[in-house]
Write a structure and sequence with these properties.
With 722 residues, the chain is of the alpha/beta class. 57% of the residues lie in helices and 8% in strands. Strand 3 (444-447), helix 20 and strand 4 (477-484) form a beta-alpha-beta unit. Helix 11 runs antiparallel to helix 12 (217-228), helix 16 runs antiparallel to helix 18 and helix 28 crosses helix 29. The two termini are 66 Å apart. It comes from Streptomyces bacillaris. The chain crosses the membrane at residues 278-296, 308-326, 360-386, 398-420. This is Integral membrane protein.
Length: 722
């Protein structure tokens, strides 16, 4: 073969191999930036609001109810208690954390960073939340069973575990006879009979009720044990304990035991290893082919530049074509959803798959475009030199341009997808959409009298979970009342407050009669510290610890201050909160910073007072900056948007959204905390007062769906601000 023909053949082969090499580099880089990147999966989940939809769509799907009830049937607590408090037991932040653990475990395994696939769920947060729920709702019952003022939950748990062990081993447990009220006996009877097949409950009820009525727990348990454990559930508790050994659920073992073949993941891991080798080979092949293309090219440096550019651009075009074929070839999904899946799960999975394909395509096109732009740049440079040969630089300079742009194009195809590809989007105040909104444009779920909780055994509590749990479940503003412990002679005037019912006054008076002396220090109380109190500084320390553990969240405190501003400043300093405190502008009309700016500065704790205004620059009077609605509503029908403290025209707007009729009304909260009810009032007040509602203050934040309403307000504002 003639030397010229050989040279042309080598050149054609080099061109083809260069195109294929560049295409392969772009595609393998795309795969690594998506399939092997935790941020890719996190981004898909966040973009589709998967965590919110778990609560608002999946868990309320009627088709899911039988599965949920089956799972809850083994718990010794009422089904409604768990489902109505699901965000307390399993808050969105916990779900996100547990999911992120599995994503990282899976991608680490596929990349070869770990030798074994171990999908293990740390259930300690869930178990702690469940224990907290039990403490809140069953504290009085357990204390009564133990015949003491405060429940000893550790002993209660040990006693219950020992009883269940005895039952599983076929022995009747030996328990002391415990006095039960009629109400406690009835509830205990219902709880025990839920473990028995429905057809046998009526027959067993009289015997169980009589036994519990006289405090004979052993007989009651023995009566129900045979029926409860006869249908194959004998080993259920033991299996559950084994599964949750050490507070960890080994998902890998569970999936394997259930007959799921994990061989596909092992094969995927092997392919990933080959993918890495292929990427290295493709990079070397592309560089060698491009070098050969330069060496065998025509004499004109300009034409050689054009040849390199055309090969690189060709690789980019082929990569883009391959990426665009992903959607029609896959049908926009990676797996086919079985028809037996519930509708809500099907819709969510389909949406996640569509988003995953869209993000993978966008990442691949980014890599392809990088190669295409680099190739086009080389081609255009060569063409410019060809058209105006007098401007052609020295051969050395041309070679430098060719080498530099070629390496940049290949490096771009390799590095751009991991850098610019999907990643978990930035979150501010729990959302990916709120970062660019100003503080005074965002709505915050606000706990009215946040310290007055069932958890802390207040008389007439207005919240159920303690303050940290409130924050865990979506509360972002806390209304707190600061006090010194009152002396007996101070109490009479305070008890005239209409928020206290006659029964509450009787209970508080009884506490005084028990010679409860004043206590030193600063306290969070609801009007009267003998009706319930928690210490101020330790509570502030808990809030600070929560903020440090949640670095993208902002918390606001609105303090009804019955202590001096100087004492308040010292308390915040003692609690170690100085570096978290945000200092508002001296001018109340000045726009607030964006959430992103506040988070970046790490000044994420905003503190207002109802009476004080300074002297600490971060401690400002709320009504200089904000306005509110009235708050003394005795029924939902009385609620209005009329101006109250703070007047009108302020940047911040507090919506008092609770009913006080001889104390807080849990029943009315069930009505007015409903999503649509709250949204209707918020929108009405916004229209009437001419500004967005910022603080939605409710009693019983875990009753109804006040959080859902607040999230909907914020979603609308974020979209309107785009």
């Amino acid at each position: 073969m003639a030397p010229g023909r050989t040279r042309r053949a080598v050149r054609v082969a080099a061109f083809v191999l260069a195109v294929l090499g560049v295409m392969t580099v772009a595609l393998t880089s795309t795969v690594r930036a998506t399939v092997l990147s935790p941020g890719y999966y996190q981004s898909v989940l966040d973009e589709e609001s998967a965590y919110d939809r778990l609560y608002s769509e999946v868990l309320v799907d009627p088709a899911i109810a039988p599965v949920t009830r089956d799972l809850l049937a083994h718990l010794p607590v009422p089904e409604a208690l768990v489902t109505s408090n699901i965000k307390v037991v399993l808050p969105p932040a916990t779900v996100r954390s547990l999911t992120d653990q599995q994503i990282h475990a899976l991608t680490d395994y596929l990349r070869g960073d770990t030798e074994e696939l171990r999908l293990a769920v740390d259930l300690d947060p869930v178990l702690r939340n469940l224990a907290e729920l039990a403490r809140i709702y069953f504290g009085d019952l357990v204390a009564s069973l133990q015949d003491q003022d405060q429940p000893d939950f550790a002993r209660f748990t040990d006693d219950l575990t020992a009883a269940l062990e005895a039952l599983r081993e076929g022995r009747a447990p030996t328990l002391p006879a415990l006095p039960l009220t009629d109400d406690q006996a009835a509830r205990a009877t219902d709880a025990l009979l839920r473990l028995v097949p429905e057809g046998e409950r009526a027959e067993l009820r009289p015997e169980v009720a009589v036994a519990l009525g006289r405090g004979d727990v052993s007989t009651a348990l023995a009566t129900t044990a045979a029926a409860a454990l006869a249908d194959g559930s004998r080993t259920a508790a033991a299996d559950l304990r084994t599964t949750l050994q050490g507070g960890t659920w080994d998902l890998t073992a569970t999936l394997t035991a259930a007959g799921n073949d994990l061989e596909a993941l092992e094969q995927a891991r092997e392919r990933v290893q080959r993918l890495t080798q292929l990427q290295i080979l493709a990079t070397v092949l592309a560089l060698v082919s491009l070098a050969a293309l330069w060496v065998t090219g025509p004499g004109s440096p300009a034409r050689r530049l054009m040849g390199l550019g055309q090969a690189i651009a060709g690789g980019g075009i082929l990569a883009a074509a391959a990426v665009l074929l992903v959607r029609p070839v896959t049908g926009g999904r990676f797996l086919t959803v079985p028809p037996s899946w519930p509708p809500s799960v099907t819709v969510l999975v389909e949406d996640l798959q569509r988003n995953a394909v869209d993000q993978a395509v966008a990442t691949g096109l980014t890599a392809a475009l990088t190669a295409l732009v680099g190739g086009a740049l080389l081609t255009a440079t060569g063409w410019a030199f060809l058209v105006r040969p007098r401007t052609l630089p020295t051969p050395t300079a041309v070679r430098g341009v060719a080498a530099g742009v070629t390496c940049a194009a290949l490096a771009g195809a390799l590095l751009v997808p991991p850098v610019l590809g999907p990643s978990a989007p930035r979150r501010c105040q729990g959302s990916t959409e709120l970062c660019d909104l100003r503080y005074d444009e965002v709505a915050h779920l606000t706990a009215h009298n946040a310290m007055s909780t069932t958890a802390d055994r207040f008389i007439g509590p207005l919240q159920d979970p303690d303050i940290t749990t409130q924050l865990d479940t979506g509360v972002r503003a806390l209304q707190l009342d600061t006090y010194h412990w009152e002396s007996p002679q101070d109490i009479a005037a305070r008890l005239d407050d209409p928020e206290f019912t006659p029964e509450q006054r009787r209970l508080i008076s009884a506490a005084i009669d028990r010679a409860n002396p004043p206590r030193e220090g600063l306290w969070l109380c609801h009007s009267v510290c003998r009706a319930g109190a928690i210490e101020l500084v330790p509570t502030l320390e808990d809030i600070g610890a929560w903020l440090r553990a949640n670095p993208t969240e902002i918390v606001t405190l609105i303090i009804q201050d019955d202590i001096s501003a100087e004492e308040t400043e010292e308390a915040f300093h003692e609690a170690g909160l100085d570096e978290l405190l945000h200092t508002p502008s001296e001018d109340p009309d000045e726009p607030w910073p964006t959430l992103k700016e506040m988070i970046d500065s790490d000044r994420r704790l905003v503190v207002f007072a109802e009476k004080a205004d300074g002297p600490a620059p971060w401690y400002r009077n709320f009504y200089r900056y904000g306005m509110e609605t009235p708050f003394a509503f005795r029924s939902p029908d009385e609620m209005s948007c009329a101006p109250h403290r703070g007047g009108t025209g302020k940047r911040l707007f507090l919506l008092n959204h609770f009913v006080t009729n001889g104390g807080g009304s849990r029943l009315d909260a069930g009505r007015i905390n409903a999503r649509e009810w709250l949204l209707d009032r918020a929108r009405s007040c916004e229209a009437e007062r001419g500004g967005p509602v910022n603080f939605v203050a409710v009693d019983y934040t875990t009753v109804g769906d006040a959080l859902g309403a607040v999230e909907e307000l914020n979603t609308r504002r974020a979209r309107e601000g785009r």
